[in-house]
């Protein structure tokens, strides 16, 4: 079955960086577009970034454009989200999604 496991979350100060990873198994990872979403307390889940099968095409929400970078390594069945210049409003649980599956999420807290 589809398994997506996020890692790399944690507590970081404003202006800092984190790199999230999403390890995928149970499906043809290299044939699937992949996405990152996030959900802040009391808010709906929102799309953060999308990457196509070979990583040649990406999309970013306006709120993260220029600060976040989505990438993937099809040889490792892993997707990444490099997050720079983090802001308190980036605090959320970050989820990866692909092949109609979801990970369990990883918590990102941006606070001084």
Protein architecture, described:
The protein has 112 residues and is mainly beta. It has no helices and eleven strands. It has strands at residues 3-7, 10-12, 18-25, 34-39, 46-51, 58-60, 68-73, 78-83, 92-98, 101-102, 106-110. The strands form two sheets. Strands 2, 4, 5, 6, 9, 10 and 11 form a seven-stranded mixed β-sheet that branches. A four-stranded antiparallel β-sheet has the order 1-3-8-7, with no helix packed on it.
Report the sheet with the most strands, covering strand number, pairing sense and barrel closure. 7 strands, mixed
Number of distinct helices: 0
* Strands, count: 11
Helix and strand element order: EEEEEEEEEEE
Name the average pLDDT: 97
Helix-strand makeup class: mainly beta
The coarse silhouette is globular
Task: Bin the strand percentage.
Answer: over 45%
User: Can you tell me the residue ranges where pLDDT is under 50 for at least 5 consecutive residues?
Assistant: none
Question: Helical amount among residues, as a percent range?
Answer: under 10%
N-C termini distance: 40 Å
Question: What radius of gyration results from the CA coordinates?
Answer: 13 Å
